[in-house]
Amino acid sequence: MKMAEKIPDLKKGLRKNCRGVRASLDEKKRDEASRLICKFIERWSVFNRSNIILAYLPMRAEVDLSVLLADYQEKTWLVPRILEDGEMFFHLYDPDRLIRHPFGMLEPDATLPSMPADRVELALIPGLAYDLRGWRLGYGGGFYDRFLSKQPKCIRLGVTFQALVLPDVPHQENDVAMQYLVTEDGLNEINPPSKR
């Protein structure tokens, strides 16, 4: 079996291990890490000059970025809504108009205004795990990779806990690496975007 054919199985096993690591982080530690991560993001020059930002609503004990959405209301915040066919739509964030998706996370009401994906300047991308080259381990749906592969101008920031930064995340041809990575230990450039 070729290495490329083994990658889905490698990712499946890694997901199970990473879920266990994240579950072992107590709520207080996750909350404190989320606050530190938000502080690193809000001091970042790319964040400060970006007006249209894609965020996410946390699920399964992901890093919580809700402080940023609350404190920077002058920015245009978008959050994803996932359709059954795997496509994502991006709607304006309204904390009073969220509904529960079958996957468990909150998502925007479908009637909220949406925005084309190519308007996103900065994407804050959740990951179950990352490595220091920017490769991401998600949940296996490929939603973010499909979006990012079509938006090369969008700046990509991976968001996770330091305990979930791994030496190596297996990746495939259709995976998209992050350009920056933030954890509670800091925000670092990995693959700087080409100069525009």
Secondary-structure element order, N to C: HHHEHEEEEEEEEHEEEE
CATH superfamily: NagB/RpiA/CoA transferase-like
Q: According to CATH, what is the class?
A: Alpha Beta
Q: Overall 3D geometry? A: globular
Total tally of structural domains:
1
CATH-scheme architecture? 3-Layer(aba) Sandwich
Total number of strands: 13
Q: Treating each run of at least 4 consecutive H or I residues as one helix, how many helices?
A: 5
Q: Strands of the largest sheet, in order across it?
A: 6-3-2-1-7-10-12-13
Helix content: 25-40%
Radius of gyration: 16 Å
Q: Could you list the spans in which at least 5 consecutive residues all have pLDDT below 50?
A: none
Q: What do we call the CATH topology?
A: Rossmann fold
What is the typical, i.e. mean, pLDDT? 90
Proportion of beta-strand residues: 15-25%
